[in-house]
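Retro notes - structure team

What went well: the batch runner handled both jobs without manual restarts.
What didn't: labels got mixed up in the shared folder, which is why I'm recording both outputs here explicitly, each with its sequence directly above its tokens.

Job 1
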Amino acid sequence: MAVDPRGVDLKRLLAEDSGEPLVMLNLLRFAEGGAESYREYARRLSETFLPRYGGEVLYAGTGSTVLVAEDGQSWDAVIIVRYPDRTAFSRMVADPEYQEVTRLRTAALAEAVLQATTPWS
């Protein structure tokens, strides 16, 4: 199961750029023992990369009671991050320093959804 965006995914993200701020939904399922690794990734992301690229965490929380879902559709954590635009997100993930840190995220996750959102008018 993929947990990191691929180059083709980032190209599609940029091709659909409206110039609006990007709000990225992260649904995370941790690998065995992965929560601690993800916390370290999140700390580094928040201290270095989000300020560098103008991003901010709007919400981060632990999954709780599932009201509507099939078996296996619950998530360990939900994070919502806002970026100034899609280009800022793309520049961040291309940053060689970020790519060194993202290994923590990759190792931490068994499954993930990383979905760009667009505001309703």
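Job 2
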Amino acid sequence: MHPATASSTGSRAAREPRVAYIVDDDELVRSALGSLLRSIDLEVRAFDSTEAFLAAPRADGPSCLVLDVRLRGQSGLALQQSLLQLGRPPIPIIFMTGHGDIAMTVKAMKAGAVDFLSKPFRDQDMIDAVTAALDSDARRADAERKLLALRSCWNSLTPRERAVTQHVAAGLMNKQIADRLGIAEITAKIHRGQAMRKMNSRSVAELVRKMEALGVVQEPHFA
């Protein structure tokens, strides 16, 4: 990735608000939690039901969900399963409950919950859990943006440039690549250089790492 691209990515991440969603049917809990999380400069969006949360738009920046297990209507655990089935972008979930048990905790954690806090909990425990969840979501979103940019770079390669990179990844030199593809050595060198430039790679090792990240490294087919 060019420095300018990396810089703009970092600037965008810095501008994006960090959002904590709260789903709890107790108004006092929503109010107290909202005040606590706003005190650490988070944007807070609170809902009294899972249905209201699902109907609301998702923020673009890092976010997490502080979710009560026992709710009127759909339970918190059921919402967790619904989010998985809907295929929405993953959101770190911090469960809270006054009636938790080991089986419930295990089920939530196996489904991807990042923490499970029993009421009453210390304010600092909630702050720590939410901060860790938001940091995790920011890293996930950044990794997805980088992979999307990398995919765009790969898609910009011509079929011949992709063929050359497959041979480069296999460890072949320009002369060997030229022989395999039935082209002049200088042509193989040009395609290789163009591919390296489009993939923003300064070395073969960097190019191969990016190809591996995209899952496009494969054994070249030798006719």
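One thing worth noting from job 2: Strands lie at 19-23, 43-47, 63-68, 93-97, 115-118.
We'll revisit the folder naming next retro.
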